[in-house]
Design a protein that fits this description.
By secondary structure, the chain is an all-alpha fold. It has helices spanning about 5-15, 15-25, 35-50, 60-85, 90-110, 120-150, 150-160, 160-175, 180-210. Helix 3 (about 35-50) runs parallel beside helix 7, helix 5 packs across helix 6 (about 120-150) and helix 6 (about 120-150) crosses helix 7 (about 150-160).
């Protein structure tokens, strides 16, 4: 985001559901069903419209490569995590992932002369706690629990709702307005989630009938 617009960086990052889907199929962990492929197309197109509706700046090759590299890294992480959560409790796994991230970022901060804690207000500390718990611990744990239940492709496709939620919160908190293009994109993402959930509901019905 230091080299390209945040919206463009997010757009490139959200190529990861397609990478996860392709990886899961290539590794023979999931089948390339029409429903899942259709949901991927809807979600990817919707995320594209939501992010592109905000506008993008000039392309910087290094910035583009870094954003795509982040997408590849995230896709690999999800595919690896899919194997791990089957052997380790997802809450414990979340604690290990977050603790390792805190240790590495903390070490980097100290090595670069930080942290700078002077003048931090109580509101600032509250914001830090909120980012740590609400924006990090809770979503990481929820994603890994969901990953164990629905698999990597479905979890990745459903997570494309993130830019829609971001735009919605920006409207609520900062008074921003959703463009028609972004509204259309949000509807596509929601449609993808509904399509996937309908499939999951149909799978659960036979079990309920037997119960």
């Amino acid at each position: 985001v230091e080299r390209i617009d945040a919206s463009l960086a997010s757009l490139l990052l959200y190529t990861y559901p397609a990478l996860v889907f392709g990886g899961a199929v290539a590794l023979r962990r999931e089948a390339a069903t029409r429903r899942r492929a259709g949901a991927l197309a809807l979600a990817s197109g919707g995320a594209l419209l939501v992010l592109a509706g905000a506008g993008t700046g000039a392309l910087d090759p290094v910035g583009v490569a870094l954003a795509l590299g982040a997408a590849v890294a995230y896709a690999v992480y999800i595919l690896v995590a899919d194997r791990v959560v089957g052997r380790i409790d997802p809450i414990l796994f979340s604690a290990l992932v977050i603790s390792a991230a805190a240790a590495s970022v903390g070490a980097f901060t100290v090595a670069t002369g930080g942290p700078e804690l002077g003048g931090v207000t109580p509101g600032g500390w509250a914001a830090v706690v909120g980012v740590a718990l609400i924006s990090t611990v809770l979503p990481v744990a929820a994603f890994l629990v969901g990953l164990e239940r629905v698999g990597p492709s479905t979890a990745s496709i459903v997570s494309t709702a993130e830019p829609v939620v971001t735009v919605g919160l920006a409207m609520l908190v900062f008074g921003e307005r959703l463009t028609p293009v972004q509204a259309a994109g949000g509807m596509l993402v929601v449609a993808a989630v509904v399509l996937l959930n309908a499939r999951l509901a149909r799978r659960r019905d036979p079990a309920r009938a037997l119960a």
